[in-house]
Amino acid sequence: MSVVTEPERKKLADAFKRRGMREHLRALGRRLWTEHFIREWMRYLRVPPHDNDYLTLPRGAPCPRCGSMSPDRTATGTLICVNFPGGWAERCLGCQTVWLHEERF
């Protein structure tokens, strides 16, 4: 993966600002995060060029890869790996696939 460019950092900073994520904005500005971590946040918040890296599915949808569902519906299950204003990311405990859920923001 290439180095995170200044225009990409700016796009992520703008996404944090829109959501009121001040601590994240400060950490990004102080360059406290690895490039992998920055790209992961770009995926979570659907910031180009990572806006289509993860599928966006409705609440309660099964894993798009193996069909596993949340812990109250199957043994394998899923977990929420990150919450953010406007949505969350969910990870399948079986196959490790990540997908997003968005709420109106």
Structure characterization notes:
The protein has 105 residues and is of the alpha+beta class. It folds into 2 domains: 6-44, no CATH class; 54-105, no CATH class. Helix content is 30%, strand content 17%. It has 3 helices and 3 strands; from the N terminus they run αααβββ. It has helices spanning 6-19, 22-29, 35-44, and strands at 78-84, 87-92, 98-102. A 3-stranded antiparallel β-sheet has the order 1-2-3, with no helix packed on it. The relative contact order is 0.16. The mean pLDDT is 90.
Which secondary-structure class do the elements indicate? Answer: alpha+beta
Rounded mean pLDDT score = 90
Q: Please state the CA-atom Rg, rounded to the nearest Å.
A: 15 Å
What proportion strand? 15-25%
Give the strand order of the largest sheet, numbering strands 1, 2, ... along the chain: 1-2-3
Low-confidence regions: none
Shape: elongated
Please provide the count of β strands: 3
So what's the oligomer here?
single chain
Order of helices and strands: HHHEEE
How many domains in all? 2
The percent range for helix content is 25-40%
The number of distinct helices, counting runs of at least 4 residues, comes to: 3
- Cα distance, first to last residue? 30 Å
What composes the largest sheet? 3 strands, antiparallel
